[in-house]
Design brief:
This protein is mainly α. It has one domain: RNA polymerase sigma factor, region 2, helix turn helix motif (Rna Polymerase Sigma Factor, Chain: A). The chain has 8 helices and no strands.
Length: 188
């Protein structure tokens, strides 16, 4: 690649990665690591786990770049890899997460008198989201936080668009119910 790899498209960077071009791989990482990390962190609620899963995602990208078929955007493919890693981890940890209640560390919060209502509400939504199954939480995370379309979410989680819509509808109803039980009126 003669020109700086930062001017290439994701598709070109992935093709470079498939040819073992480390510069292309590094640029692909720089472009997508933050959004993937944030997605993984919102699903797992553990920084160290999100970091570890992010590394696993990019190892899989390095090893599997040549197998990318181009039927989706590169970013969608990356989220699909991240999604499967996170859901696998969540399914293995589900009983532990329910027992430990380590979803949001209390030590990282501001003093109650200085915490804004917006921060408190965001924390409450995160707690409520953690009550959803991994599949339902992932759908909402991809739709609302990553702003993917229903079609892109379907590609990420490998199911029909109708299933994504159904899961999103169920997840929103369940999330609203959890928030209501927490004393928060919401219409997600």
């Amino acid at each position: 690649m003669d020109r700086p790899t930062s001017s290439f498209t994701d598709q070109q960077l992935l093709q470079g990665t498939a040819r073992r071009d480390e510069g292309a791989f590094e640029n692909l990482y720089r472009r997508h690591s933050t959004s993937l990390y944030n997605y993984l962190l919102r699903l797992t609620h553990k920084e160290d786990v999100a970091e570890e899963l992010l590394q696993e995602v990019f190892v899989a990208v390095w090893e599997g770049a040549s197998r990318f078929r181009g039927q989706a955007k590169v970013s969608t493919w990356l989220f699909r890899i991240a999604h499967h890693r996170a859901v696998d981890w969540l399914r293995k940890q589900r009983p532990t997460l329910l027992e430990d209640d380590e979803r949001l560390p209390a030590d990282d919060r501001l003093e109650p008198e200085t915490e804004t209502l917006g921060d408190w509400r965001a924390d409450q939504v995160q707690i409520a989201l953690s009550q959803l199954s991994p599949d339902h939480r992932a759908v909402l995370e991809l739709l609302f936080f990553q702003e993917l379309s229903y079609r892109e979410v379907a590609q990420v989680i490998d199911c029909p668009v109708g299933t994504v819509k159904s899961r999103a509808s169920y997840a929103k109803r369940h999330l609203n119910g959890v928030l209501k039980r927490m004393g928060i009126e919401s219409d997600v």
